[in-house]
Amino acid sequence: MLRIGILTSGGDCQALNAAMRGVVKGLATNVDNLEVYGFFNGYRGLIYGDYRLLTSRDFSGILTRGGTILGSSRQPFKLMREPDENGVNKVESMKSNYYKLSLDCLVILGGNGTQKTANLLREEGLNIIHLPKTIDNDIYGTDVTFGFYSAIDVACDAIDRIHTTAASHNRVFIVEVMGHKVGWLTLYAGTASGADIILLPEIPYSEKKIIEAIDKRHKEGKGFTIIAVAEGAISKEDAALSKKELKKKREKESHPSAAYRIAKLVEEKTGTEARVTVPGHTQRGGSPCPYDRALCTRLGSAAAKAIMDQKFGNMVAMVNGETKLVPLEKVAGKLKTVDPECQMIKEAKRVGISFGN
Amino acid sequence: MLRIGILTSGGDCQALNAAMRGVVKGLATNVDNLEVYGFFNGYRGLIYGDYRLLTSRDFSGILTRGGTILGSSRQPFKLMREPDENGVNKVESMKSNYYKLSLDCLVILGGNGTQKTANLLREEGLNIIHLPKTIDNDIYGTDVTFGFYSAIDVACDAIDRIHTTAASHNRVFIVEVMGHKVGWLTLYAGTASGADIILLPEIPYSEKKIIEAIDKRHKEGKGFTIIAVAEGAISKEDAALSKKELKKKREKESHPSAAYRIAKLVEEKTGTEARVTVPGHTQRGGSPCPYDRALCTRLGSAAAKAIMDQKFGNMVAMVNGETKLVPLEKVAGKLKTVDPECQMIKEAKRVGISFGN
Amino acid sequence: MLRIGILTSGGDCQALNAAMRGVVKGLATNVDNLEVYGFFNGYRGLIYGDYRLLTSRDFSGILTRGGTILGSSRQPFKLMREPDENGVNKVESMKSNYYKLSLDCLVILGGNGTQKTANLLREEGLNIIHLPKTIDNDIYGTDVTFGFYSAIDVACDAIDRIHTTAASHNRVFIVEVMGHKVGWLTLYAGTASGADIILLPEIPYSEKKIIEAIDKRHKEGKGFTIIAVAEGAISKEDAALSKKELKKKREKESHPSAAYRIAKLVEEKTGTEARVTVPGHTQRGGSPCPYDRALCTRLGSAAAKAIMDQKFGNMVAMVNGETKLVPLEKVAGKLKTVDPECQMIKEAKRVGISFGN
Amino acid sequence: MLRIGILTSGGDCQALNAAMRGVVKGLATNVDNLEVYGFFNGYRGLIYGDYRLLTSRDFSGILTRGGTILGSSRQPFKLMREPDENGVNKVESMKSNYYKLSLDCLVILGGNGTQKTANLLREEGLNIIHLPKTIDNDIYGTDVTFGFYSAIDVACDAIDRIHTTAASHNRVFIVEVMGHKVGWLTLYAGTASGADIILLPEIPYSEKKIIEAIDKRHKEGKGFTIIAVAEGAISKEDAALSKKELKKKREKESHPSAAYRIAKLVEEKTGTEARVTVPGHTQRGGSPCPYDRALCTRLGSAAAKAIMDQKFGNMVAMVNGETKLVPLEKVAGKLKTVDPECQMIKEAKRVGISFGN
After folding, report:
1. Which of A161, B160, B332, D167 shows its CA 20 to 30 Å from the CA of A59?
2. Angle, to 10 degrees, between the axis of helix B207-219 and the axis of helix B258-270?
3. Chain D: which residues have CB within 8 Å of chain A?
């Protein structure tokens, strides 16, 4: 007899269903009398007791389906200790629902914020297993998160399509890739799709260097330039401002988005037409790629093992090609960002990609 | 012995290469001593004598390649009779280059604007064959234009991806589909992807009706709504304004784009979070879909026959499943728009799709 | 109050779910107290009373899903009048189940064989609406069947992938495309993917002509050749045999499949390595393409209208871009084959494609 | 001044062009007076002096293109020391052409066999850099080879499509995945696509266990079963035979291919219809997936660095997320096979996948 709860929290992402299927298949194949309670819309379902007893039928055929059959919501970590608008103590409410159902373990799928709350619940005494979900790949302690490679495929497809049209029209094209704080997705999608300039939050750019890179291509007879820019890319000037100053500056700009800022810069300084594409939430949607599906089957299966072995309080990570349990207390609250001096950046620069610095 | 010139003009589009391959293969297989002159960057190449003698090798392997090997540019029809900034008479210059190369025919691939100039050159005495290219499907006299179905695939893929994430988060998602004046692309992509609301330039929308459609879904227990909106979708109020008044109004708006206007409306009136996706020029790029490739092979082959039969002054159209020659003088300058009372609109309404009217 | 039954019969195909969704949405939006009974596994469910009352929830989210939520089976028309192994009279049993549920109409999705049984049930007095499903596009009375364009996409993707590897290795590649009696799928997929030789059931091939076409390419410096061959392609010699003689001959062959026969021929006569690819049932599976989804939404919506208008005994067809009701008695039992002299064949030949004749 | 030669050898594979582009871009960006000689059709071009001086234009736009712009051929390692049919000493001829062009380094892209010859040329004194190409992922000393993840995508797509049709018809479907000696591709594609049974060359299967696994699914109410079988999968009985005995046995079988053997077994023992799909060479063709393109840009860039640093005699590997030089003498001739006791196999078994053992 085993009773587990499961929830998906935070921004949407491919392969959430695949990961849940892995966990439940891993348990159902090996445990008699398994009960799985699915909480709806992330921590919200756990707080307000919105759940359903799921059957194996619920997990059948969902390996390739995008989204999450449980729904999701964003519940900021910093408000978790605050009462809600009706005075409900969220943490106590979550604990209460956990114990009411006599859960042996709560499986939580989510990104950095989700992980912090998962760790908080662990500190409060609940048995927690966390699976690292995010298209941003910014979770500390795992080589890769699920959703990352699926999102690369989408962003890369957008840049690929833009490539043909850019070449036909001799324009500068700017594709805005998701990532406010970290640039993994932009770095990989940009490298994979042959972007000429890649702008990351971790490497503040010089406007002059961007123009120089475009000019250099013109001189080499290449009429078009593709720029992959992360949502959180920032100029050196802006990076030097205080938070308050930056906020003021942004409010004055007609297009408070990185891609449009670059487009304006390019048109003003080079006279070349610049066009912006914003794949937006398509990067979080659709079927997970095969990589993510194999990854999630492995992570889910390893999570099932951890639960059966009662090794709680861990994130199931992928490290050097092997699944591994990593204590939540060691990783919660940490962010894995792109090191501007890392090997991959050097390799990309060597083949001529400019990072605007 | 046959000498033809070929050029691609106007906005980029899939299957331009496939269509050119069709024409050249159709001629090369049947004509001895074929010479094909490719003019670069649309009419610009014809005006300024920028061309190259192409070999069959140039057309090998391009069936699936997006963009155009000849490059393109937009040359507004209304400026064609005007001299350029150096005083060059464009029409005379095009004629002069045509005769200098002793061309038997000039093959022109392009949309509505391109077609008008093609007809002008026909009136000036040149032998012209036109192929109907545009993702907008708005060319009069043909059932379908090439690029249209490829663009549907791209727009549809975007909406499909959004679907999963919309369902997980109970949001309203607005996807902006290309089309300033005509809504074919939005109509087909929206219908094919199961959009709940479709907004077209041809059917001015009532803001109230949009909100009602969203509310109706909420009442049916559906937390999310997908809106496919054409770039040129317009409210009844705005449609009633004069051009000048509308321009003034747009200048005051922070987001002068249809999708952002709808998003603002939804957030203000329903309180539901609304997110915008702009696939943009991805809708023009990448490999043509198989439909367009078969279509272009047929159109190209029929163009080759028209040239060999010396039936000039025609567009090669697809009508009721058969290729057909349609006199340019009968179609140039006409636009094929969506009739709000057409069968497909009625069928879409019958399955519950709202057109906001 | 309206009660309808629905079933999907025959070989699997994309967009069956999309078509059913169209019918049910079309009715549910316009009819109060709609009851939809889904019969499982084709006519088998109707014969043996295996059905379930479906809700609109069953049809939600299935627009893009391959396969059929009702299951399918093949029930040969010629055995319909025969009792089954337990002596059950199939036709009477189907009528009995129809009347027991007081159905107003039975909606049947299927191909040629299915259509014949649908017509038989019409003759027996049932109210029937038929939707034309098949990847073969061989249903008489409609320009296109659903599944056809999705299957083209799959077959075309296979040939596209083969193209790159064929070019790298200077081999002859033979891709076997589905179609025992008709060649529409092979014709379109082959044309769209730039196959060099296309072999159809309707055009018996000369082995000599195939070898000549390969040799011609070699002489032109093209080391590889792609052959798209329909399952039912046949040599002139074999086409001249009686059914009995042909059966005997096939039994002696080690690979009784068209593609392998061509491969053997090529290797023996040209010395070039030949490789066979059999996409097989992948051509029937996966998500329907946007074309088919828009088509099925239209056909389904038109079927709903026909039911509400009580215009029974019809197939819902697509003719010249408009949906249309076609009496079953006029089309049942007829097959739409490729006319060897049709415009598209001529166009394909003009661009250099050989049909081996 | 730097002169390099480059060649692609062995079975075709995605991302060969991407890898070459990486090497040449990495060098061209950093070296003045670079000369790149491309040898055609693998070692054959090096042996017979069939090459061309390439320009950076040749490497432009090939990042996403399948196949190899240089062509390839299989040149068995064991025949390398043998004279050819005209008495030409192959090794001496390769050395002679290398020195004639005063090459500083020869870059060789290929799999295991290619690597052995690369190592032989290294032993003969040539400066060699090897890049690990194969869809089989069986090269010792690197975590991953390029082509592997692209091939997974293709095989996985085939199984995904089969899934919908299998579910509709209650059949057993057998998909034959490439891999004669190693099962990595089948293991990953099977896991990623939710195959129920996976058969690998490294784990001889028991026919009884396969039937038991199918029966178990039937008892659980699942009417269909998907089997992913590697080309080289073998039964325990056959694995116990001598090479000679096995060859004899195969010759008697009508379908000497793993998938057809399994199909026959299933039909005979379960009475369920079994269908075979053979994606074949499609697994080697088409555009590389984004993963492979980023990988190849990195490997190519690292190869360029190795050449500039004069670190010859190495394979450029990817180990734990970093590129790394691995001496050819340490890895040539070794094969990386699937360990039946490895973590991933255990994880797959835990979620209910049967390996037939």
Report:
1. B160
2. 60
3. 22, 25-26, 28-30, 61, 63-64, 143, 149, 152-153, 156, 160, 167, 188-189, 191-194, 289-291, 293-294, 297-298, 300-302, 304-305, 320-323, 343-344, 347-348, 350-352
The structure tokens listed for D347 are 């994880």
Q: Name A17's Cβ contacts closer than 8 Å, sequence gap at least 6.
A: A59, A62, A63, A65, A66, A67, A68, A69
- Would you say A143 and A318 are in contact if contact means Cβ atoms under 8 Å apart? yes
Q: For residue D324, give the DSSP letter.
A: E
Which CATH architecture fits B151-283?
3-Layer(aba) Sandwich (3.40)
* Interface contact flag, C161 D280, Cβ < 8 Å: no
Within 10 Å of residue B211's Cβ, how many Cβ atoms? 16
Contact yes or no for C128/C121 (Cβ under 8 A): yes
Mutate one of D164, D257, D287 to test the C interface: name it (highest C CB count within 10 A).
Answer: D164
Q: Write the CA distances from C232 to B304, C148, C248, D50, D276, integer angstroms.
A: 32, 17, 17, 42, 18
For the question of residue D136 being annotated catalytic, the response is yes
Closest approach of B209 to chain A, Cα-based (Å): 26
What global pTM score does this model have?
A: 0.96
CB distance A177 to A229 below 8 Å = yes
List of chain C residues whose C-beta atoms are within 8 Å of the C-beta of residue B153: 289-290
pLDDT in tens, chain B (357 residues): 999 999 999 988 999 999 999 999 999 999 999 999 999 999 999 999 999 999 988 998 899 999 999 999 888 899 999 999 999 999 999 999 999 999 999 999 999 999 999 999 999 999 999 999 999 999 999 999 999 999 999 999 999 999 988 877 788 999 999 999 999 999 999 999 999 999 999 999 999 999 999 999 999 888 899 999 999 999 999 999 999 999 999 888 877 689 989 999 999 999 888 999 999 999 999 999 999 999 999 999 999 999 999 999 999 999 999 999 999 999 999 999 999 999 999 999 999 999 999
- Paired with D110 in beta bridges are D132
Query: What does each C-alpha distance from B172 to B211, B214, B349, B355, D262 come to in angstroms?
Result: 11, 8, 20, 16, 49
Domain ranges of chain B: 2-147+288-331, 151-283
Q: Which amino acid is at B258?
A: A
For chain A, which chains pass the contact test of at least 3 CB pairs under 8 Å? B, D
ipTM reported for the complex, 2 dp: 0.96
Lookup result for tokens 């009974």: C37
Could you tell me which CATH number the domain at D151-284 has? 3.40.50.460
**Topology (CATH) of D2-147+288-331:** Rossmann fold (3.40.50)
* d(CA D114, nearest CA chain A) in Å: 25
| Spatial contact of D68 and D58, defined as CB atoms under 8 Å apart | no
Taking CA–CA distances from A274, the nearest residue in chain B reads B281
Domain covering C152-283 in this structure, CATH number: 3.40.50.460
Nearest CA-CA partner of A153 in D157, B27, D114, B70: D157
pLDDT (tens, 9 = 90+) of chain A, 357 residues, equals 999 999 999 988 999 999 999 999 999 999 999 999 999 999 999 999 999 999 988 998 899 999 999 999 888 899 999 999 999 999 999 999 999 999 999 999 999 999 999 999 999 999 999 999 999 999 999 999 999 999 999 999 999 999 988 877 788 999 999 999 999 999 999 999 999 999 999 999 999 999 999 999 999 888 899 999 999 999 999 999 999 999 999 888 877 689 989 999 999 999 888 999 999 999 999 999 999 999 999 999 999 999 999 999 999 999 999 999 999 999 999 999 999 999 999 999 999 999 999
> Which residues does residue B229 pair with via DSSP β-bridges, in sequence order?
B176, B199
Residues of B in contact with A221 (CB under 8 A): none
